[in-house]
Amino acid sequence: DIQLTQSPSFLSASVGDRVTITCRASQGFGSYLAWYQQIPGKAPKLLIYAASTLQGGVPPRFSGSGSGTEFTLTISSLQPEDFATYYCQQLNNYPLTFGGGTKVEIK
Amino acid sequence: EVQLVESGGGLVQPGGSLRLSCAASGFTFSDHYMDWVRQAPRKGLEWVGRSKNKANSYTTEYAASVEGRFTISRDVSNNSLYLQMNSLKTDDTAVYYCARGRLAMDVWGQGTTVTVSS
Known about the structure:
The structure holds two protein chains of two kinds. Chain A has strands at about 5, 10-15, 20-30, 35-40, 45-50, 55, 60-75, 85-90, 95-100, 100-105. Chain A is an all-beta fold. By secondary structure, chain B is an all-beta fold.
């Protein structure tokens, strides 16, 4: 199984900050990596797929990059509605796996 | 409007069974891979299993934690996805989501809660 390790697991940031979340895989795979945002009590929302492609309707302050075993999600200027938990997911191999999540809180 | 609506959750005793449903609308159901994902209380997301699309004969894949106990099926005439859960354990307590997608899960339902407790 491909294990995904997100770092940090928690971060405290201010509105306007640039935030980067890392997702490291236990083995290399293709680019079938997705990022999701989850607000408490709500279903996850797709932000990025294929490592770097922005899902329609998602603000361009979100971006993704990486390949192989290291991927990143960047929020260029954190907005109040971005305080949430973020998950990476690989869809290259079965079983599909998620990272443990990164909770972004207001400083 | 593309939409997924889950139903069928509830309270069940350990060892019991439950069937969840996911009603799809607004897209061609047979063209898409469909997944079940769960989230235990205060925990992260866990993939449960997948039904591939018609082109791939609706074949299924499962997480090791549910293989042999859970079964995913479809009723294409009703645009519905199902998750039959047998031999339930307390560890299966979670919100269960259905989601659409192959290379990413781009549409999610609102979730249905399953509680396994005596």
